[in-house]
Structures
1.
Amino acid sequence: MLNRRNFLKNLSLAGPLAAMPSALLQAQPEIRSGNIDLTVITLKGKVQSQGKGIAGVAVTDGINITQTDKNGQYTLQSNATASFVYISVPAGYAIPAEKHIAAFYRPLLKNSAVQRHDFSLEKLVTDDRQHNFVVWADTQIISKQDAEQLKTQSVPDLQALVKSYPAGTLFHGIGCGDLVWDHFELFEDYKQAIDMCGIPFYNVIGNHDMDVDARTDDYSAQTYKQQFGPTYYSYNRGEIHYIVLDDVFFIGTAKKYIGYLTENQLQWLEQDLALVKPGSTVVVSLHIPTNTGAARRERKAEELSGVVSNRKQLYKLLAPFKTHIMSGHTHFNDNWEEGNIMEHNHGTVCGAWWTGPICGDGTPGGYGVYEVNGSDIKWYYKSTGLAKDVQIRTYAKGKAKDAPEEIAANVWNWDSKWKVEWYEDGILKGAMEQRVAYDPLAQELYTGPQLPKKHTWVEPYLTDHMFFAKPSADARNITIKATDRFGNEYESRVI
C-alpha cells in the first residue's frame, strides 16, 4: 500500500538574511571520532575550454567551495569523507554530459592524498541568456512496462516540444526525483529515455531513489550517487543560478523519510549563494516540496514526509534573491507565491503511477516548461500527448457530483494571478467561483476499491484549482476562458 502524503499549512516565510562576510561562509569539514577516515586530501586541477583556463569557476567537494584563479587552476583541501569534486558550470558554456546525463563531477580516488581532476568545457556559440528548461517530476517507473511508456509516450512528446521552438534554442531538463520506484535496475531505462530526449538533464534524488536498507541517511544515496553523482550542487545558465538540493532525509526504517535539509547542505549553500549577486534569479530544485497548500485537501497523516520541516532556514538564505522552487513528490500540481519566492509543485510524468492519464487532482500527466529571457522566467504546463495550448478541462452541468447544477473547469496550472471567466450565449458573466473540490474525471477513473485496475489504491485528490458557475436553465452556449499571469488566453466550450 502506498503511503499517503499529507501536508502542513499556514506557515509564513521568514524575513531577510542579514549580510554575512564571505570569509565566514568558508565552513570547515566536521571533525568526527571513531573509524571515519579524516585523512586530508589535496584536490588540484584546471577548468578549461580548448586549453584556455576559465577564471572564477566554483569548485567544491560538497563541503567547501573555492574558485579557479585567472589561469583556471584550483586547489581545495578536502578529506576522505567527501565522495566527489565537482564544478558549478559557468554561464556561457555547454552543460557537460554523458548520454545527456549531466557530467559535472569526478569521483574521488581512494587512498590518494593528492589528486588532480581537470574539467573541460565547451564554449557556447548561442547566447544563453535566452534558454528554456523542463521539469520532469516523478517518472517513477517500477517495471519494464512503465519504462516502455516513458520511452514511447513522454520522450516523443518532449522531442516534439523541443523541435517546436526555433532551431538552436537552448534546452535542458531537470529530473525532479523519484526517477524510479525503488527498482534500481530501472535506472538504466531512465537513462536511456533521457538519452533519447536529446537534451542534457540534471537530476534530483527522490524518496524512491534511496537505498532503504541503509544504516543512516548518510548512506541512503549510495546507489543514486553511483548513477548520477552528487545529490546537491549548482550550475549557471545565462543570468540564472540553478541549485539542486537533497531534501529527502531517510530515518532508518524501510521507506520512512522526512522532508529535511541537512546542515552539511545548508552550510554548503551559504557558500554557494555568497558567490551570487543579490537580486539575481535563482532556481532551486528538490523533490519534496518546501511547502504546499495541500492541507486544504484534508489529508492529515505523515505531514513531515510531505514538506520540508526546516524550510524557513532555506527561505532565509534565499531572501536576497528572486527565487523559483521546483518540486515534485505529491503527484498533483500546485503553485504558491509569497514575497520573493514562488514554488512550482509539479504534476507527474507518470500520471497516476502509469495506471491512468491524469493525476489524482485531474492534472494530466506531463511536465513544466520554463522559458528564460535574461532574469525573467515564463512558464506553462505541457500535458503529454496534448497541444501546449490545452490548459483547462471543462465539465458540463451534471458532471460534478457535488455540484450537479453547475458547470466546472479544472485549471491545473492556476496561480493567484490567473483569471477564470465564463460566457453564456456570448455574454460575459464574470469570474467563476474557485472552490476546493474533486476533479470529475479523476473521480470517474479512480473512485472505488476496484479502480484503477493496475494500482487500486490510487484515489482522487481534493484540489483548489477547480472553478464553478451556475448557468441559466435555457443557456445554449457556454464558454470558459482562462487567462494566465502572462496574458495568454485559453478557451474551452462546455458541451
2.
Amino acid sequence: MSESQETRLEPALLRLLGVLVLGAILALLDATVVNVGIDSLGKEFDSPLSTIQWVATGYLLAVAVMVPISGWAIDRFGGRAVWITGLAVFLGGSLLTGFAWDAGSLIFFRILTGFGGGVLEPTMLTLLARAAGPARAGRVMGLMSLPLMLGPVIGGVVLEWLDWQWLFFFKVPIGIVAVVLALKVVPGAEKGGGQAQPFDLRGVLLLCPGFAALMYAFSQAGGIEGFGQTRVVVGLIAGVVLILGYVIHAFGSKIAPLVDLRLFSSWGFSASVAAMFLVGGMLYSLLFLVPLYYQQVRGNGALAAGLLLAPQGLGALVGMPLAGRLSDKLGAKLLVPAGAALVAIGTVGYTQAGASSNLVVLAACSVVSGLGLGMVGAPAIASVYRTVPPSSAAGASSALMILNQIGGSMTVALVAWVLASKTLAADSLTTGFHHAFWWVVGAAVIVFLFGFLLPGRPEQQPAPEPVKESGDPVPGAA
C-alpha cells in the first residue's frame, strides 16, 4: 500500500492537529511560567513560600482530579464538547487569576484553571489517536510534540518584560483563537463509538483523590527533608490505599470502570505505558534541572535560562517528527533505546558542568538530549495507541496521562531532594547539581533497557478514514 493511501496526513488531519496543539500548549506553558514565577508572586502578595506554593500545587491537584474523568467524559459527551468546555474553563480561570486581589483568591482561581487544564492533554491525545489511526500514530504524535518544547523560552520572555498579571493574561487571546478554530475544525459528532456508559461514581471517589494524593506527596517531597516528612508519608499512604481500592473496585464493578484496567492485560499496552512513565521522569527532570542550573549556578535570569534551554527544544524539533515517521515503519523497540542512549550521553555533559563551563559544549549536550527525548517520546506514545482499539483510546489516554504525570512528579521530587541533600552535604551547589543530573542519566539507562521490551514493527493497517471536520463533509466525498 502506498504512503498516499496508508499514511498520508491529509489537510483536515493537519488542521485538527494544529488546533488541538494550540490549545494544549497553553496548559504546558501555564505550569512552566507559573513555576518559574512563584518567587515573584510571593513578593507581590507578601506571602510566604509555604502559602504561595499552592498557586502551583493547587493547580496540579485540580489537574490530577480531572485527568481520570476525562476519558469517561469524552466517551459520554464527545471530544469536541469536552475540549471546548475544558478550554473555556481554563481561559476563564486564567483571566480571573490575573485579577486576583490576594493570595487566597489567586490560589482559588488557579485551582479553577486546573479543572479546565486537566482535560486538555488527554482529550488532544484521544482525538488525534482516533483521527490518525494506528498507521499514522507515530507521525502525528511526533508533530504534536514540537511546540510543547517552547514553554521555557516563552515563559522567560513573559517574566522578563511583563508584569505578573501577564503570567496569566497572555494565554487568553491565544485560547480564544483556539476555541473559535475548534468550533470549525474539531469533529462534533465523535463519541466513544458505542452506548454511553454509566458514571462510575465509586471509581471517581477512589481514583481521583488517590491520584491527587500521590501528586501532592511528590510535590512536597523536593526539599531537604525529602520523603520523610509527615505530610509526604501521609500523602503516599493515602494515595496507594485509594488506588489499590480502585483496582479492587475496577475488577469487580458491574459497570464500566473509570479507567479500564483490562487494557493492561495487553503486554504491548502495559510496556508502552510503563515506558511513558519513565519518559515523564526524564523529560520533567531535565525541564526542572537545566533552567535551575543556569539560574542558580551561573546566575542567569529567567529569560536567559529559557533561551539556554532552547537547544534542547531544537534537538526535539529534529527528533520528534523523524522518530514519529520511523516508528510507523519500525515500531518503538529500536527507536526508544537509541533515544534513551542519546539522552544519557547529552546529560552526562551536565554532570561535569560548573559555573564557567563552555556554553557551546553545554548547548551541544542539550541538542543531543533533546534529540533523544524526541526519539523516545513519539514512538512510545504511538505504541500505546497501536495496542488498543479506537473505542478504547479515551481510557488509554487517561491511563497514559496518569502514569506519565506520576512518573514526572516522582522523579522531579527525587532529583530535587538529591540536589538539596547533596548540596548541603558537600556545601557545594555545583556538586548537588552533578549528583542530580547523574540520577537522570540513571533513568535514561533504565529506559534504554526497558525499550527492548516494547512492540516492534507495527502490523500493516488498512487505510484510515479521512478526518471529518465539524459541520463539513468528509474531504474528497461527493
3.
Amino acid sequence: MAENPERDDEPGSEDELRDMLQQFLAGGSGFDPSQLAGAAGLPNDPASIAALMSQLQGALRNSSEGIDWSIALKAGEDRAAATQLFPTDEQRAQLDAAFNIASLWLDEVVSVSELSDAPQLITRKQWVTRTMPVWTQLAEPVASSIADALTRALSEQAPEEMRSMVANAGSLMRSIGGTMFAMQLGQVVGQLASEVVSGGDVGIPLLGDGEAALLPQNVAGFGEGLDVEDDQVQIYLAVRELAHARLFRHARWLRLHMISSITEFSRGLRIDNEQLQDLAEQFDPSSPEQLRDALTNGSLIPPKTDAQLAALARLETMLALVEGWVDVVTAAATSRLPKSVAIAEMVRRRRASGGPAESAFSTLVGLELRPRRLREAAAMWQAVTDAVGGEARDALWAHPDILPTSEDLDDPMGLVTRLTQTAEGGEPALDDIDQALEDLLRNDGPERPSEPQV
C-alpha cells in the first residue's frame, strides 16, 4: 500500500498544532486558564472557566464549520440569567393594562394597523434568546474579518520554523478567533439585556415582524429616581414599544432594508493590519486582556472610507426617521399623561448619553446606532403632521422611494409644501430632473425650424 505523502505526524501538520493547542487548553506548559477567561470577559470562577475551555476545545474539533454562534447565545443567556428577576403577577397585570391603554391611544393618532400578535412580557434571558439571531447576523461580517486578519497576523509574526504549521492550520486559527469574538458578543448582549426596556429600545428591529415586548424588571428600573407614578412610566414605554413594532409591521420593506443596509456596511469594513500586527508583536500571554480590549474597543477597525461614510449617513437618516416618527406619535398618544414630558426627557437623556446599544455596537461592528439627526427628524414629522395630518404622514412609509430624505430634514417646509399641494389636488412641484423628463415626454423642448417649402 502506498504511503500517504501528507502524514499527520509530519512536522508542520495541522494535527501537530491541534495537539499543541489541546495541551495548551488542558492547562499544560504552566498556562493559567483564568487568564484566558478574563480575556473573554468571563468571571473568574470554575464554572465559567470550564465552559470556556469546553467551547474552545469544541472549536478545535470543528474548525472547518465556521463561527459557532451558539457560543454567543449561551454566553449571553448565562450573563442575563445571572441578574434577572421574573415578573410578579402584579407587574404582569399592570403592564398588560398599560399595553391595552397604549393600543387605544395609538389608534387615535396613527393610521398604521394593530399588531396581529399580543405584546409580551419577557425576562432578560428571553430577550437575549429572541434577539441574538439579529445580533449575530449584524456582527458576522466583522467577526469573519477579524478572524481572518488574526490568522494572517499570526502567520506573519510566527517564528520561521512554525510558519508552515500556522499556514496549514488557517481554518483552525480562524475558528478559535471566531469563538473568542462570539463569546465577547454574547457577553455584550447579555449585559445589554440588563439595560434595555423593550424589544425596540435600540432602534433596529431585533424581534420578529410585528412583535412587541417589555422587560418588566428593566421597566421598573427605568422609573427609579423619577418623580413619576409607575403607571405613567409603564403606559409611556408601552406606547413607544407598540409604535415601533406597528411601524415595522406597516412598512413591510423597512425591516429587511435596515438590516441589509447594516450588514452591507459591515462587510465593507477592513481590519487595520498594522494595529493587529502591533498587537501580535506586543502580546503578553500573561495579560490576555489585551486581546479582549482589542476586540471590544474598536481599535482594529480603521477610519471609514468615503463610501462607508456615505453609507453611514444613509443609515443614520433612516434611524433618525424611525426614531423621530416614534417620538412624535408617542408624544401625541401620551398627551393625557400629566408627566409625559418628564418621561420623554428621560428617554432623550438615555439616548443622548450614548446608551449601551451604541457602545456595544460601535465597538463590535464599527457602527454607532445613535441617530444624530433625531431632533431634525422629529421636527419634520411634526411639521408634516400639522400640515396634512397623521394619515398622509404615515402613508410616506409605504415605499422607500417616497420616504423623506436627508434633504427633507434640511428643508422640512419644502416637503410640507409638496405634500400640501398634493393633498389639495394640485400638481406636486417638480425638481430639475423631473421637470426635464416632463418636458421631454411632452415634447416641450425648443421648436425646430420649419422645413423650407418647395
4.
Amino acid sequence: MSTYELPRPEPQTAEHLRKALLAAGFTADGLLELLGAPAYAALARGETVPALRATRGDGALEGLIRLFLLQQPVPAERAGQLLPLPEALADGWLARVDDDVHATVDIRPYGGPDGEDWWIVSDLGCAVGGRDGAHRGGEADREVVLGVGGASTTLAGLTLRGPVRNALDLGSGSGVQTLHLSRHATSVTGTDLNPRALRCTRLTLALSGAPDAELREGSLYDAVRGEGPYDLIVSNPPFVISPGARLTYRDGGMSGDDLCRGLVERSAEHLAEGGYCQFLANWEHREGEDWRKRVSSWVPRGCDAWIVQREVQDVAEYAELWLRDAGDHRGDPAAYAERYDAWLDEFARRGTHAVGFGWITVRRSGARTPSVLAEEWPHPVEQPLGEAVAAHFARQDHLRSVDDADLLAGRFVLAEGVVQEQVGTPGSEDPEHVVLRQQRGMRRATSVDTVGAGFAGACDGSLPAGRILDAIAQLLGEDPAVLRARMPEALRRLVEQGFLEPAE
C-alpha cells in the first residue's frame, strides 16, 4: 500500500478532474471499449499485464488508465495535457517525483444503474478484493481501504431502490453504497470505524458529482446512537470470522459471527416502521445445530426477514481464502502455518465445522406473526434483485392476510418469465414430472403435478383460483371438494416463491 496522504476533497478540483476524465472517456464503457473484454475482466481480477499491453498508445485514455488504474508513472508534461495538473498536485490527487507524476489513490470508473459515470476512490493497489492479498504486512495496512469488489456489487444489486427519506450505510469503505443511496434517499448517513475510509467515501462522492453525506466515525450502529430512525439501512460489514482483527475492512474483531448477529438483533432499534435493513453476512455452522434456526433466532420481534445462504465453505477452505486475502501465502511458510493453525484452533473451540455466506434482509413490519424465511439458494440469480426482494415481502404480506377460503376466492397471474419444462423418458406418453422455472429474479425451479401445472397455466387473472380448480377437477374426473381441500398449501408455496402473483 502507498504511504501517500489522501487528497483533499475540494469541490472545484473534483469538478475539474471529473470533466477531464469524461473528456478522455475514462468511464466504465470507455475502459471496456479500449481494453477489450479479456483485459477488462483481468483487471477486475487484479491482473494488470493485459491492460498494460493494451495501453501502450499515447492517447488520453491510455494515459489515465496507466496513471490511476495501473499505478504507472506518467511524464508531468503529458499529465498536464490530460488533467488540471496544478490543482491535482496541490490537492494531493497526484504527486510529482522528478519529471514524472504518480497517482496517490486508485480511481476506478464505475457505471451507475441508470448509466451514470461514477468513480470509486480507494487505496493504491486495492481497487479489487484480494486474490493476491491487499495486505502487505505493514502496520499502516490495517487501515487499508478497498474499492469495488464482488461483495460491493452484490449488495448494490440487492438493495431496494425506491425513494426513501433517511438512509444509512454502515461501514461505508470507499463509498460505493453511499453513492448508490445518494440517488434515491433525501438524506444519507455513512459510518465507518476507519477514518481513512470516511475520507475515501467523501472523495468518491465529490469526484462522482454526488451530494455530500453525513459521515460518522465509529463502529456500526454505535456511530449513530440517538439518530434516525432510518427507512433503509445497508451494510457490507467486516463479517469475516477470524481469530483477531488484523484488517479493519474485513475483520469484525468479535467472537465468531457475533458481529452479524448484532447487526440483525439491533436493526429494529434503528429502523422506521416499514423500513428495511439489508446486508451481507457470514454465519457459523456448528455441530448439532441447524444454521437456519440459529440465524433465524437473531431476527428481532416484530420484524420479517429473508435469509439466503449462497455458499458454504468448510473451515479449512475458509481459512485459506482469508489468509490469501491478507497475502500470508506469499510470506514466511512457518508464519503462514502458524496463522492457519490459529484459525482452525478457533473454529474447533467453537464447534464450527463450516461457514455460510449470504444475504440478510430484515423489515420492521410490526406483524404479530412475522414471516422469517431462511433458505439455501446457491444457484445463479439475475441482478439487480432489489425489485425481487420488495416483491418477496409483498407476497408474504398477502399470504399472511388471507385464509384458505380467501386464497381460493382470489385471482392470480403467472409471473413474468415463468416457463414449463416436462421431464421424462423419450417417447413416453406422459412426462414423469413437470417443472416450473423462472427466467428472472431468483430463477427458482419447482416440480408440480398435473393439477399444479394446469392451474398455473390457467392463471391469467380472469377467474378465481377455486373456479379454475373446479374446471380441472371436471376434466380429470376428480371430486372438486377434494381438490379444493388439498390445493391451498401448494398454492401458497407457488405464491411465496414468486411463480404466481395476486392479480390485484
